[in-house]
Design goal:
The chain is 29% helix and 27% strand. It is α+β, with helices and mostly antiparallel strands and 329 residues long.
Length: 329
């Protein structure tokens, strides 16, 4: 029922507000009577209709055997409802570290599942709406970690909404479910859109605005490394290639070497998202080539560096461009 209500934007907003009060966002959630909902399935409604027909038959014919069968089946249905509810009650979920992803790719949410008491919880479905669901079992006194996947469509804060936990165990007559918002913070980087780096006139990336302009020959030679796709023809060790040692490239000292600025203002005639996507690709490319690069976008600047932390900081600046620092929960 709640799934259909969430398809209506107005009802979805009101439902989310109600759920936020009833089941507040948290990094660690334990399901209980306030957070579990239960309704008959289609099979459950058919089962109920059958009981009504049996009861009418027993009343009309005053048949004690049909009475006994009706009440026995009714008791079985009540027991199924209680077992379905108890199959979620006491289930605890805790979110782990969520790595940043690029827009359009699949994000993975590690969820640690445990259960209090000695009950084995079986055939529990966990997943985000419009994404694949995984079926798990929760074993008493044993923590298990499951990866819940979903597609991150837009850059910014990674906020997939509420996760659905449901069960129809044991007979499939009832469906117990809960909508839980696991509280975590991660970002979605813009999808990289590469524009080719071009090497010309002995200068690295001369035709890309703001890229290094120092000649390769002026850098301090460090040694040889395995050839990487996109390396300039000028840094390939042709002597070693001729000796049959395979494709290798010369490596130079970058402490005082290649320095570039990736500047928003140099991208003309493109919309905001395209600029962000191209700058993202350039950050990745510059980092792969071990350049010391800086980033300039409206309202933010990252000074030149070549570390992994610098790359992550630049990508985060691009991901959160024109987005509030704190997301709504």
């Amino acid at each position: 029922m709640f799934t259909r209500l969430r398809e209506n934007p107005w009802l979805r907003k009101r439902l989310d507000r109600w759920l936020d009060k009833r089941i507040p966002p948290a990094t660690d959630v334990t399901l209980g009577h306030k957070s579990i909902f239960i309704m008959p399935t289609k099979a459950g409604w058919m089962y109920l209709a059958m009981l009504v027909l049996l009861l009418i038959t027993a009343i009309n014919y005053q048949n004690s055997l049909v009475y006994a069968l009706t009440f026995w089946l009714f008791g079985l249905g009540v027991a199924a409802m209680l077992f379905t509810y108890r199959n979620l009650a006491g289930l605890s979920l805790q979110v782990g570290h969520v790595n940043p992803v690029f827009a359009g790719s699949v994000a993975t949410l590690p969820v640690r599942v445990s259960v209090s008491g000695q009950r084995l919880l079986q055939a529990i479905g966990i997943g985000y709406p419009d994404n694949s669901e995984i079926i798990i079992d929760a074993v008493p006194q044993e923590d298990r970690v499951f990866d819940v996947s979903f597609r991150a469509m837009q850059r910014g804060w990674l906020n997939p909404g509420r996760i659905l936990i449901e069960s129809r165990f044991p007979l499939g007559l009832f469906r117990a479910w809960s909508w839980v918002r696991l509280d975590f913070k991660s970002v979605v980087y813009p999808a990289p859109e590469m524009t080719e780096f071009i090497f010309a006139s002995g200068e690295v990336g001369d035709q890309i605005p703001g890229v290094p302009s120092r000649e390769v020959g002026q850098q301090d030679f460090q040694g040889l490394r395995r050839y990487q796709s996109g390396d300039s023809m000028k840094i390939i060790a042709w002597k070693q290639v001729a000796q049959g040692r395979g494709m290798v490239s010369k490596e130079f000292d970058h402490d005082e070497g290649a320095l570039c600025w990736l500047d928003w203002s140099n991208l003309h005639g493109t919309d905001i998202e395209t600029r962000l996507s191209r700058l993202t690709a350039w950050v990745l490319e510059a980092h792969q080539r071990h350049w010391r690069y800086g980033l300039r976008i409206p309202g933010a600047e990252c000074l030149p560096d070549s570390s992994d932390g610098h790359r992550d900081n630049c990508l985060k600046k691009l991901a959160l461009y024109d987005i509030p620092l704190e997301r709504e929960l």
